[in-house]
Amino acid sequence: VVKTTVRKTTNGPVQMTLSTSGWLFAVEHETAHYSNDYGKTWNDFSDQGIDLAHFKYFFSSRSGTVFGIRQNGSLYRSNDNGVNWAFSAFGLQEAWVRELDFLSDREIMARTSDGLFHSSDKGKKWNLLAVLLGNVADDVPRERVAFDERGKTVYYLDATGLYRIDLPGTIPVHITATLFNTKRSFSLHAHPLTSTLFAWDEAGFYRSENAGTQWQDLGMAGIHQVYSFPSGEMIAISESAIMRSVDDGNLWDRIHVFKDKISLSSNLATNGFSRVFFTAFGLGGGSILYRSDDRGMSWNTQLVSGDRGLPLNPASRIASSQTGQ
Q: Which conformational region is residue 98 in: left (phi greater than 0), alpha (psi within -120 to 50 degrees), or beta?
């Protein structure tokens, strides 16, 4: 299972992830569902020894492990595509998990309400890497941690600015950048081949080629999600269009223009090679599942609201298996 950045249904937020079997997991109105037909139909989970109705978010790793975050923030994992679940928060029991970032098959970073934690055994045990200063609330899941695969460096944001940690486990270094000397709420992304960093919020989209010390304004507003394919191409979902770049995010082409501005898109889900999904809300009052099989060059759509299945709202979160389902 591949986490959505490579590596949210009716009136309540939903988060989704996809296992290697092709099952799509989703939480809507505090109830867990699954689909095994590309999201056309949805089924409720049966009783599996743990109250699945209290899962709030799902994440998925590259090695096939699905993680579920419960309403109280506690973390559980499943190694068999959601059939069985085990407690997976040893070392961060009192922390509210906000985000998971998968560095490798075994290494995972967890951003919580007050700290950045690291696991080297697929999430079984966790160790504190950094205390996050200031309580940064997440109204929807955000990517505040970015892993530079090329430089083996973790970048993260808290209420005081941008930091970096050179793995394994060095002392966090505060990066002086005027961009983050504001109360704006940014998301982060690192290009896997070039180490270029990207930061965005509703007001702007920025790019840095020098480890976050200087930032170039790309002149694009309303960005919701950014993703880099392993082959180097990038896609960005804004409130008005799907955009694509083949030059490390310097220039962007509009591939698909939405009929209406979307209030928010879901996270991007990908099989890590060529296929990618995301959901958009606000197009004619319905929720749309977008899918591309060619690294974002062309897109197919499917209505997934109303009587045709599970309705998706702006806070939905999805992920895709290595098979691309």
A: alpha
